[in-house]
Amino acid sequence: MPSAVRVSSVHVGMPARFGPSGEPSAIHKKPVSARVFVTAAGLEGDGHGDTIHHGGPDKAVHHYAFDHYEFWAQTYPQAQAHFRAPAFFGENLSTTGVVEADVCVGDVYRAGNAVLQVSEVRQPCWKLSHRCGVPGFARRVQDTGRTGWYYRVLEPGSLEAGDAIVLDDRPHPEWPLSRVLEALYVTPLDPHELRAMTALSELASGQRAVAERRLETGVVEEWDGRLEGRR
Fold it and tell me: Which class is 9-173 in CATH?
């Protein structure tokens, strides 16, 4: 991550009714002007509507690059009102100057006085399509690799907009998140990449398990339920 990167804004939100069936979701987040305490459970004042697929130690903090917003506004002019300010993707941290290719699995960063470790890439879901009113939007997020990523919290602390995000350690420089995304969605049955993913102890257990299942079965899991809300 470039040394000049700073937190542009911090966002939190609590679950509310969302979606065609009124499912609870905390995707609607609001900026916080004061310092926010962050623990292994995430940011103070932030919640999760679906605790099976969201939250937990490996998804404590969600980071999305504001750098991608202009691409989405130009690609979907009918929905550009959603891409004028950060937090559309439900991110906790927004920045400019760093994207998925600049961040590696297991990177350890100091943000404010909290210590965060990159744990996994975000797997987009149908809620993004529903929120902007564009069918297939979540699949396009996945296909382009503009997904964002998650951190686990190694040391609790506090952070706020304007804080620097400083790299402390990079154990896997050969594994930028762009490579993880390619292994998951572009070459999903490449045995070399899948075996390498299973050996990344810093990668979240859920994404290592995906690689393990593909190696065992030779089958890619279905994505429609997640991307399109099909059950």
Answer: mainly beta
**Mode of pairing for the β-strands spanning 61-65 and 93-95:** parallel
Q: For 192-220, give the DSSP string.
A: HHHHHHHT-TTS-HHHHHHHHHHHHHS-P
For 53-88, what is each residue's pLDDT tens digit? 677 999 999 999 999 999 999 999 999 999 999 999
Domain coordinates of the chain in residue numbers?
9-173
3-state helix, strand, coil in the chain (%, to 5): 30, 25, 45
Tens digit of each residue's pLDDT (9 = 90 or more) over 90-110: 999 999 999 999 999 999 999
Distances (CA, A) of 224 to 18, 129, 163, 220, 231: 19, 13, 38, 12, 8
Pairing of strands 114-121, 149-155: antiparallel
Q: What pTM, to 2 d.p., does this model score?
A: 0.96
> What DSSP state is assigned to residue 164?
B
Q: How confident is the model at residue 187 (pLDDT cuts 50, 70, 90)?
A: very high
Looking at residue 123, its amino acid is Q
Which residue type occupies 50? D
